[in-house]
Amino acid sequence: MPLIGFNHLYQFADGLRSALSVVVAGGADPTVLEAMSLAQRRGWVEPILTGNVHDTQRLADDLNIDLSGFCLIESDEPAVAAVAAVKTGRAQMLMKGQIATRLLMKAVLARDTGLRTDKSICQVVMMEILRDKRCFLLSDTGITIQPSLEQKADILRSLIEVATSLREPSSLECPRIAVVSATESATEAMPDTIDAVELTRRAVAGEFAHCVVQGPLSFDLAYAVDAGEKKKIDGSVVGSADAMLFPDLLSANLTVKAIMYTANCCFGGILCGTSCPVVFMSRADTTSTRLNSLAMSLRLLVR
C-alpha cells in the first residue's frame, strides 16, 4: 500500500479550504518562526506562540519575519499554556517548539488538564527515502521506553491509522505492518519476538482492522525484497512494509536517527494517542522537518 510523499502532503495542505489554528509550545526559536511564517503564507495555519513574547519578537525582528497575524501568549510555562489553548478550543493542533520534551509531556499527560486519551501515546515518524522513492512509518521512536504487549497493540493501531490516512488516494490495499526485531525467528531468549508472534496472531484473528501484520521480521526483511529472497522468507509484508513497530524506544530511536543523518531522505514526526495531533520532533531539527511534520498532522486532522 504505497504511502504518499511529502510533496503530496504539501499539495494537500495547500488545498485546505481554511487555515487551522496551531499553538507552538516555546515560540522563540528560528525554525519555529520560519516554519510558522511559511505555513501561514501558504494558508495552512493561524499561528499561536507561547513563551517569552519579548524574546520571540526580538528573534523575529532579527530574522526579518513579520509576526502580523500571529497570536503571542506570554507564559513562564509555555507547554502548559499551549495545552490549555488546545483544551479550550483556541487551537486545533499543538507543536513542540523550543522546549524540553519532559516539560511538554508533563503538560500533555496532566491527568485533568492534559491531552490524555485511553490510548498509549507514541511518536510516529515518516521517512521518505528519495533514492528508492519509498515512504514508511516507524514507531515508537520517542515516548515509551519499554512498551508492554498491550502498549504495542495500541502503537500498532496508531500506525494503522496514520498509514491509512497517508495512503495513495487510488490505493485500496490495507497497511502492511512489520513487527521488527533483531531476528525473524521467535525465541524465548528475546521476549520481543514472542510479542511479535502474538501481535501477528491477533491480527490474523481480526483484532486490528484493515491491516496485514507480520513478525518478527528484521529490518532488512521488512524493507528489502531481495533480503527475503536470499533468506528464503516470504509473506505479504516482506520487502514492502508500510510501517514498522519496534520492540523498544532504544532500537527505534537509534534506527530513525541513523537514517535521518546518513540517508538521502525527508522525514517528519507526530504524536499519536493524544486528543489532537501533536507535531513532535527534536529541537535540533530543521525548518523543513517542522513543515513536513505539520503537513502530516494536517492530513490526519482534515480527512
Spatial shape: globular
Largest sheet: 11 strands, mixed
Total count of domains: 2
User: Going by CATH, what is the homologous superfamily of the largest domain?
Assistant: Isopropylmalate Dehydrogenase
Note poorly predicted spans: none
How many whole angstroms does the radius of gyration measure? 19 Å
Intertermini distance: 18 Å
Question: In CATH terms, what is the architecture of the largest domain?
Answer: 3-Layer(aba) Sandwich
Percent of sequence in beta strands: 15-25%
Describe this structure as you would to a colleague:
- This protein has 303 residues and is an alpha/beta fold.
- The chain has 2 domains: 1-116 and 274-303, Rossmann fold; 122-273, 3-Layer(aba) Sandwich (Isopropylmalate Dehydrogenase), CATH 3.40.718.
- The chain is built from 11 helices and 11 strands.
- It has an 11-stranded mixed beta sheet with strand order 3-2-1-4-11-10-5-6-9-7-8, with helices on both faces.
- β1, α2 and β2 form a beta-alpha-beta unit.
- The chain is globular, with a radius of gyration of 19 Å.
